[in-house]
Amino acid sequence: MGNAAARERGGVMDNVSGAVWLARALRDRGIDHVFFVDAVLRQTLVEMEAIGITRVLAHSEPAAAYMADGYARVAGRPAVCLAQSVGAANLASGLQDAYLHRAPVVALTGKKPPLWQHRNAYQEIEHGPLFAPVTKWQAAVDDPRQLEILLPQAFRAATEGSPRPVHLDLPGLQGEVIEAAMLPPPPPADARHTRTPARRPPPAGDEIEAAAAALARAERPVLVAGAGAVLAGADEPLRRLAERLRIPIATSLGGRGIVPTTHPLHIGPLGTYSAPCTNRTVHEADLVVLVGCHAGDQVTTDWTVPGPGTAIVQIDLDPLEIGRNYPGTIGVCADPALALAALHGHDLPARDAWAARAVGAFRAWREEMAPLLASADTPIRVERLCAELSRALPADAVLVADTGYSGIWTGTLVDLPHPGQTYLRAAGSLGWAFPAALGAKCAAPERPVVCFCGDGALYYHLAELETARRRGLAVVVVVNNNSAFGQGLPRVRGLYEGREGDPDEIIRFGPTDFAAVARAFGVEGIRVEDPGEIAPALERALALNAPVVVDVVTDALPRAPEAWRPS
Ligand SMILES: Cc1ncc(C[n+]2csc(CCOP(=O)(O)OP(=O)(O)O)c2C)c(N)n1
Fold first, then answer.
1. Is residue 545 a contact partner of residue 476, using CB atoms and an 8 Å limit?
2. pTM of the prediction?
3. Is residue 404 lining ligand 1, measured as CB closer than 6 Å?
4. Whose alpha carbon is nearest atom 6 of ligand 1?
């Protein structure tokens, strides 16, 4: 055999640079965007352009991680963020929300090669401990040939079971040792690990029988749908089961929107970010069916709702979550959509009177809120802003909410009446929503994306207005601008009761005009100071098909709905 023929049959000529390898291996896994701060994997970024991967240059590593997170949540696919060695700590901090929410973000960082280690290397600390609490799996690639094993493993770990972030440390502070290596072309990707959920196991017959028996016994059942139910696309079987058996549907914030929030059986979000009626109803239930819901402290109001001793059925893809928080849980380890469909096949009683009572309590609460939703007060009441947003959101909108009050306001008072609407919420990191909304827009360029945040949240990543303009990311940012960390304001002032001092110094900001700030970035800005101006501002912003900041000046003192707790 001649040299040329030998080369063609898997010899040296077939090898590709590490940069080409990585770009191709990511593209083969469905990656069409990467989010990063320079300087990392520059040659790979060049190769990415050639094969159609969009490079989104961000202004900070946490923002890049939040963009990847927002992308992954909307796309239902892994997303990639990159940072050089000195950016690793920043990038890790941005993975916290993806970890808490369970989003499959693949983080790649550069790291100086072994000969540089333990010698006071410039700009570098150990990366492993930084990523340990915010990833499900991480590895250092010491030799470029390990990529063939470790990159597929990263995607496997990110997508199997509960999806979560993963981290690969690449040799070279910019990952350049990888890029310069020559490697055989990447083997084909496993399609399973290019999406979430990676697999859809059907329920075991005996587990479904036990769950059906619990439903048959229950007189006051409630369904609680979480982010796992949304991820599984369990909306249709959830609605069908609830409608047939007349079971009220509550959600976690992560599950919000799985059924239209105006659905006749929907009773709002459960937990510490909720309207009082929902916790009361779920506390009264004699069976709570958790569907893709991990029953942490927030959704269960510190495990008081459902109260200890309540019968629980938990349907989850991840066996490690079943029974974690409620001893005696009846578990169904399966794809939530398949498990609900299997329950639908059982002959079970409908609980009309109970459903009417639960739903009636929710409606009564909404009626109580009606005057505030229509308030003509200036400064604007946030309830009125929520009502206007409910009316303005298009039928296919993605609403991305920040944490704290932004989660409570949008979770309790912004309606999502259309099945095509999506709700994403911060799993706790203030400032997450704006970059996450940019990532969401990259994943769903044809859908309107609206970010709802406070001024305190927007300050974190204001610089990404430049990214929005540069990349033409048409996100509408609605700022609830009360010149404060408003959620804590009365409590902080309360701490000063009877003593001298200045509470505002630790909780208030100056009166920034974010519309003017946006315009300085070359982004459209609309300032709203009168409640009558909200609707036309939102209409205009959504029609522009460009990034827009709608800066709504609101009153910091009114309190968001407060969760009910058992005494
Ligand atoms: C990274 C981070 N730091 C601090 C907090 C605590 N925190 C939660 S909500 C909040 C206030 C948010 O203020 P703003 O975004 O202006 O919204 P508002 O409360 O005024 O509606 C703070 C400080 C947090 N959740 N995350």
1. no
2. 0.97
3. yes
4. 430
User: pLDDT per residue over 381-410, tens digit each?
Assistant: 999 999 999 999 999 999 999 999 999 999
Q: Is any ligand 1 atom within 6 A of the Cβ of residue 554?
A: no
**Six-digit token pair at 298?**
């927030």
pLDDT band at 8 (very low <50, low <70, confident <90, very high): very low
Q: Are 398 and 449 in contact (CB under 8 A)?
A: yes
- Give yes or no for residue 484 CB within 6 A of ligand 1: yes
Strands 449-454 and 398-401: parallel
Q: Which of 430, 479, 481 to mutate to test the pocket of ligand 1 (most atoms within 8 A of CB)?
A: 430
Radius of gyration of the chain (CA): 25
Q: Is 314 left (phi over 0), alpha (psi -120 to 50) or beta?
A: beta
Spatial separation of the C-alpha atoms in residues 130 and 135, rounded to whole Å: 9
Q: Which residues contact 196 (CB under 8 A, 6 or more apart)?
A: 72, 76, 77, 78, 104, 159, 163, 231
Residue 395: both structure tokens together: 């039928």
For residue 278, give the 3-state DSSP assignment.
helix
How many whole angstroms separate alpha carbon 190 and alpha carbon 95? 24
Ligand 1 center to 36 CA (angstroms): 25
Helix-strand-coil percent breakdown of the chain, rounded to 5?
A: 45, 15, 40
**Non-local CB neighbours of 536 within 8 Å, separated by 6+ positions:** none
Confidence of residue 105 (pLDDT cuts 50, 70, 90): very high
Quick check: CB of 407 below 6 Å from ligand 1?
no
**Beta-carbon neighbour count of residue 315 at 10 Å?**
34
Distance 492 CA to ligand 1 centre (A): 13
Q: How far is the CA of 165 from the centre of ligand 1 (A)?
A: 24
Instruction: With residue 62 as reference, give the H or E element that holds it.
Output: helix 61-75
Phi and psi for 530 in degrees, rounded to 5?
Answer: -120, 135
Give the closest residue to 467 by CA, choosing from 10, 125, 70: 70
Q: How far is CA 75 from CA 29, 105, 537, 552, in A?
A: 13, 12, 29, 30
In sequence order, what are the beta bridge partners of 478? Answer: 452, 550
What tens digit of pLDDT does each residue of 173-209 get?
Answer: 999 999 999 999 999 999 999 999 999 999 999 999 9
